[in-house]
Amino acid sequence: MTITYETLFEILRREKNQDDLQKLDPKFFDELDEYVEEKNNSLNEKPRLDQFMEGYENEQNAIKIQLTNIRKIIRDIFDRRERKIMEMAINKAKTGSNIIDTSALLPQEKDFFNAQIKLISEFRYDVLEPVLTSQKPGSRALEDKLEQKDLNMAVKEENTELKKVKVTEAIPKFVGVDLEIYGPFSQHEEIELHPEIAEMLIKTNRAKVI
Question: Do 106 and 9 have their domain in common?
Fold first, then answer.
């Protein structure tokens, strides 16, 4: 994608008119940075020897105005995408659904999206769940939460050989930072998991090696 004033305006128009996050080139932010830097360099260029001062000043003023407008458009695009990503993260944290389309997320936005899911999930667990279940700090629920945080750190990697274990204590459903849903698992159930997650279950006496 070649960034121009016109393409930025078109991107903003689509983000305004569509509820869903719009797909952009994966290198959009990098190219945007280069585009703004190029405009800034044009603004700092010294006049040519054959250029009249009045013409130079008019050209510089035109670039200043355009640069101001460009920054406004970029900020508007960013704000609108940010709000959409927050809505996606809230829906994901509330429902645990895997049908939420994340294909339009840019690499930098994926990190933001995952971080918001984790933050929202922890907030709901800390504040909402105790109210709904009447469980207080210090209960088994709190211990489960701490163990779940450890489990979430064990990110499932592709092409990793799974480890087979037997569940020794019922395990409630939980979501890893890779957004994969694990469980629920019943007692005596035999399952195959990522080695790091399996080891964590073994260490917490929730499972044993078969």
Answer: yes
User: Which residue is listed with tokens 């930025």?
Assistant: 8
Nearest-angstrom CA–CA distance, 189 and 207: 9
Please indicate, yes or no, if residue 106 is contained in any of the structural domains. yes
Domain that residue 59 falls in: 5-118
Here the CATH number for the domain that contains residue 59 is: 1.20.58.1030
CATH of residue 176's domain is 3.40.5.50
For 110-160, the pLDDT digits (tens) are: 999 999 998 988 888 888 877 777 765 544 454 555 455 555 544 444 456
Q: Give whole-number Cα distances, 193 to 65, 104, 143, 167, in Å.
A: 57, 29, 22, 11
Residue type, 1: M
pTM of the model: 0.60
